[in-house]
Amino acid sequence: MFFFSCLSKQGMCLLSLVVTIPTLKPPSCGKSVSYLDCDKHPSSFQTAIFYTALYIIAVGAGGTKPNISTMGADQFDDFSPKERAQKLTFFNWWMFCIYLGTLFSSTFLVYIQDNVGWGIGYGLPTAGLAAAMVVFIVGTPMYRHKPPCGSPFTKMAKVLVAAARNWNQVVPDDPKKLYEYSGPGKYKIGHSSSLRLLDRAAVRTEEPVSEWKMCPVTQVEQTKQMVKMVPILVATFIPSSLLAQTHTLFIKQGVTLNRSMGPHFDIPPACLLVFVTIFLLISIVLYDRFFVPTVRKYTKNPRGITLLQRMAIGLALHVVIMVVASLVERKRLSVAKDHGIFENDQTVPLSIFVLLPQFALMGIGDSFLEVARLEFFYDQAPEGMKSLGTAYWTTGIGVGYFLSSFILSTVADVTKKNGRKGWILDNLNESRLDYYYAFYALLSFVNLLFFILVAKYFVYNNEVNETLNESQEDIGKWTEQGYIAS
Description:
The protein is mainly alpha-helical. Helices cover 63% and strands 1% of the residues.
């Protein structure tokens, strides 16, 4: 993780240089000229340096994000009732801190970039990252470190290859006849009845064989636990693509609306994203401090509700978000039409705050969905594969953004056929984003049904259930002592 943190820092340093050194910056047309009207373009070298910095940061983030949350959760001892109770709230507050940083960057740093300079604007987070790395190094002796267990991809590949090579083998009815690790001190997972096709990888053979021909039951079960989460991962692609809408079309809507707050101040449309973060932070606090303790009294679940139930609430809210967005856009188009506004550079006499409900609901929905799916993928991943489990979370977000672009371009192309105008045009006052949002609401609803189906048949890991049951016995004790939300 330290290596990828260094990589991120190098990328941030390079990006700071790109916006500071004149030879690396693209030519400017002056502050009075909009970037849309500027006819000066960066050179190929400047473009290459800029994208190199971005890709370095992306690679660094890909190596740190799945591991930092895993390492944080691993600091809690599951065999200690006190720490196990604390761990139930870890992901709530971890996500709270992440979005608190987002709030800082989207307000203070944006102000610095606009009013002081881009060099300082990128230099400050670069210095902050360097300071965080120093804190990380200093704290290393105090961390609980888990020994490396080898590549999870190699372990899973061995199981899949062994199961394919043993496709004609008969799986014994008694799981004790399957091959398993021997000797004390070995981490073992009991046999489960799910995905029995993979049990062929653990069928014993008389002749000596390689690890690519016969795998222990524990390794097979680890692979099962990762594979059975894939349908849940697929169900998160659509909501992840919805996140992209808040950074693109939602903002473009705001550009067309009345942003005035007095004679001398106009709200930047991108500032609406701050409301997503604010409502998310508030929702996390309310969820952890009030919702969980209240619901826990009735459900007897230490988390209040299960992780899949929490995700389902978030997915349901995503449907509501797109319905609200569709209705708001229809209202915007109606006002534009009533006032004869059809050009893209004309302002619709409607307050930008009409978009606030969809941004606020996005923050509330993410407080349910994003926290729950991160914790779910960590919680249900087997020992030795926790980082791969949390990587499912970042993978879902990444795929969702690509999927968003694909859906947007596909809808735009399909709706333009047969001489029609199309739903998505450069001129929003001529577009039909209300239809597009309604389509997204329908897509989100179908995805919600798919999620409910796969969640219904999802079986939680035995060891996790046992841990939760044990936590239930001690939850009252540690709540009274103030260790977790009460």
